[in-house]
């Protein structure tokens, strides 16, 4: 058996992937004052979503003998669903609601924010796939 043997603390990757990281939203490379806490694609939630997607494709292939080609509108909806499912919290003065201060995090609130600020979807999606950020490498 091959394994790594080294001095120091071994990272607990599953814990890091599930704990999530704060992802600052940026415009032109500059933070705008809003951060979303995201889980990794390799978190328990991310792996569950990936398995469900593969199962749907497998079922479609078994029915038709072809791999499904997803409609672009459905693909964008699924991407938002994925980002929202991996989101955990938000913070920052740029996140505004009807009342004073930053509103409490909710999936519905994040969907509304992403519907208005579509550019943020790509940043959050990319962050979930950046494994090194979660392991603090």
Would you kindly provide a written description of the structure presented here, covering whatever features stand out?
- With 137 residues, this protein is of the alpha+beta class.
- The chain contains six helices and three strands; from the N terminus they run H-E-E-H-H-E-H-H-H.
- It is 50% helix and 15% strand.
The share of residues in extended strands comes to 15-25%
Overall average pLDDT:
88
* Global morphology: flat
Strand ordering within the main sheet: 1-2-3
Provide the helix percentage. 40-55%
Biggest sheet overview: 3 strands, antiparallel
Order of helices and strands: HEEHHEHHH
What is the rounded Rg?
A: 18 Å
- Unreliable runs: none
Total strand count, please?
Answer: 3
Give the terminus-to-terminus CA distance: 26 Å
Provide a brief overview of the structure.
The protein is an alpha+beta fold and about 140 residues long. Helix content is about 50%, strand content about 15%.
Task: List the SSEs and their pairings.
Layout: H1 13-19, E1 21-27, E2 30-38, H2 44-64, H3 72-86, E3 87-91, H4 107-116, H5 119-128, H6 131-135
Antiparallel strand pairs: 1-2, 2-3
